Every structure is written in structure tokens, then in C-alpha cells.
Amino acid sequence: MSDKEKDSIKQRIRELLKARNAVIVAHYYVDGDIQDLALETGGFVADSLEMARFGKNHPAKNLIVAGVRFMGETAKILSPEKRVFMPDLDATCSLDLGCDASDFATFRAAHPDREVVVYANTSAAVKAQADWMVTSSCALAIVHQLKLEGKKILWAPDRHLGRYIQEQTGADMLLWNGACIVHDEFKAAELEILKAAHPNAKILVHPESPQAVVDLADVVGSTSAMIKAVVEGSANEYIVATDKGILHRMRQLAPNKKLIEAPTAGNSATCKSCAHCPWMAMNGLQGILDCLENESGEIHVSYASDGMVTGFRISLETGLAIDGDDSADGTQPDYCEKDRLFSLITSELPPISELGDLPVDPVEFANGFMHFLFRGISDFFMSAGGLSAFGFINDAASTAPKTAATLENPMLAR
After folding, report:
1. Which residues touch 154 (CB under 8 Å, ≥6 apart)?
2. How many CB atoms lie within 10 A of CB 331?
3. Which residues have CB under 8 Å from 199's CB, separation 6+?
4. Torsion sign over Cα 278, 280, 282, 284
């Protein structure tokens, strides 16, 4: 597409966003042109957590979600009264594809004694089977609290993220065998070579990466935590181990910092760092224009009466007031003083089994789900000083208890 054609499409999109009362919500991993257009037109660029929060709170009646399928589904669940569109409905996620809802139901049924915690990178049908749905911004704190309550956990779908959380919390976790095809490709040996060439660079790693890569990190965290580390950090160079789409926004926010893509392959490969999600790459300007002109790519989510509500704890009436305490020496933040408050709140929740097959009002569900996930948990992580609780400095001498995670492989990740 020529620059002239691109400019023409952008201008048409600007006009239609106003005419259709629509807004673009984009992920950090999509093309830079889409990120810029979203910001220019009053939209938003963020991680999946903040994307959904923005879409819920924005007055626009139509949301254009530039990302992958589960992000569009989450936006629809949280804003059922709005119409949600995506540039390409085939833009999915390897974690989502590798955790089929029926296969997961079989896995879950085989372990009825475990609390089911699923990562946001799953379909609505899988989320509906969970006791807790978490993002990389709040997963560590929630699992930590469940562990203190003596709960055993069944985790899905990313085995690397699950292992990292298990290591940091000491929780008894049974892990689904899934992986992100982007983060799974980072290579520790090549990263060590790159670090030797840039000894003063800080290494930023997303926790969906293999353990050997995570062990080399100075900061382990979500996309938002990684951006925060670059913007607020004192180093001049950063090696970034996540989808390279994030570098666009990082460079805008920290123009004087040198950003280096972490390696996914050796010297003989056709590309040294190939870290870009093929499904994120399916988002394009033409797809956004099609959403606005033709109402294509609309997201629909079924609100089964025995599914969506029973899949989540929606009754948190008070924000989970965890005090941010990212220690200067990089050890795990101290949540222990807040355990009593957490217990008081969750003790009022009815067991999932008692909820039954009651009719579900989508708006009521969405409001409750939002209250739990975004007001109850994430407000802390978005406002706490220093790095987020999931982006603290990685320290090999961490005092967090460590026990071996159990990895079960009932179904190979597709």
C-alpha cells in the first residue's frame, strides 16, 4: 500500500469514527500506524487489561478492537450494550487455540479439588469454566492469596507463566501445557551473547518466555510494566524480550533510550529476532475501514445461564486494597499484611456450585465482572509506585518459597 493510499484510508477512518460514534482500542503489538491513529482520534493503546477498561468507560457506542480475538470477546463481555468490531475475526492467539474448551472441561473435571485460574489469553468458553480470570498484571497477587488460603490451583493455559507464578508464590499448581508461539521462541544462549555485547543494558522479559530466558531478566513483567521500566529506568539501553510491536510505543515514550530486540534465533537464521505475532499482524487499516463502512467483524458472545456468571467471582464489593511495596532490593512485594482484608472480602462470596442455573442479565454480569477485575484488583497495579507488582526486579536470591510445579500434558498445545 502506497503512502498516498494509506493517508486516504486514514482520513476516511477519521471521518467514520466521528460519524459512527466509534473509537479505536489497540494493543501494543499491532502495527504502529494503527497505534498512532488510535491515539490521534481519541482512542487508546495499551495492554489487554487497560484496553478493556478503556472500552468499558468510554462513551462511544462502537468499539474497534485492534488486537486478537480474546481481546474483542473481553471487550464485549464488559460492554454488552456496545457493538464491538475487530479488523479480522481470524486474528486469534496460540494460547487460545491450544486450550480447547471441551478439552479443558475434561482436564478440569479430572481435578475437582483444585481452584481453576485461567489467564486472559483464552476464549470466553474457557473463562466461563474458571473460578478466577487473571491478567499478567494481577495473576501473581491472586495466586499468592489463594496459596495462603491453602488452595491448590489448576492453571491454564501458558505453562511458562504458570511456572513463573508457581516459583514466586510456592503455590501447588497443576499446569496446562500451552505456550505463546512468540515468547516461546526466545533463546537464552543467544540472549547471553547479546548481553555480553551490551553489558550495560537491562533485560526486560515477558513471563510467557521460557525459564532460562526469564532467569536472565532484570525486569520480568507485563507489557505495561516493561514500558514503565523503560520510561522510568535509569539505564540507557534495554534488551526487550516480547513482541517487537511494543517497540513503537516505547520509542515514542522514551526517545532517548536505545531499545534492542531480544533474539529468537541463531546466526544462521534468516532473521535474528522474529518476535512478532502473526495474528496481531493481521490487523490492518483496511480492516478497520471495513468495520466502519460495512459493519464487518462484529464480535458476539453467548451469555449461557450456566456459564458466564458461574465462571467468575463477581461479588467483590470493595476494592482489594493491596499496598504496593516493590522492595528496593528487588525481592517480592509484601502482601502478607493485606491477607486479612482479602479473606474478609472473599469469605462473603457464595461457592460456585451454589450459583446454579439462574438467568443471567448480560449488563449485570458485565458490571460485576468489571468491579471484580478492574476496580478490585487492577486499580492497585495501575497506581502503585515503582514497577507493578508483576514487574518487580527479578532477583535470584528471592526469598519466595520454591517447590516444583507439576506439569501435566493431557492434550498437546495446538
Report:
1. 107, 108, 111, 114, 115, 116, 117, 173, 174, 176
2. 16
3. none
4. negative
Distance CA 307, CA 42 (A): 35
Model pTM score? 0.75
CA dihedral 109, 114, 119, 122 (to 10 degrees): 10
For residue 322, the SS3 value is coil
pLDDT one-digit tens code per residue, 115-160: 999 988 888 888 888 888 887 777 888 899 899 999 999 999 999 9
- Give the closest residue to 54 by CA, choosing from 224, 180, 205, 208: 224
State the burial class of residue 15 (Cβ atoms within 10 Å of its Cβ: 0-12, 13-18, 19+): exposed
C-beta separation of 52 from 11 below 8 A: no
Sheet holding 44-46, edge to edge: 44-46, 22-27, 62-66, 83-85
Edge to edge, the sheet with strand 406-407 lists 132-134, 115-119, 153-156, 173-175, 406-407
Q: Which helix (H) or strand (E) holds 104?
A: helix 101-109
Closest to 153 measured CA to CA, from 233, 321, 26, 142 = 142
Tell me if residue 408 falls in helix, strand or coil: coil
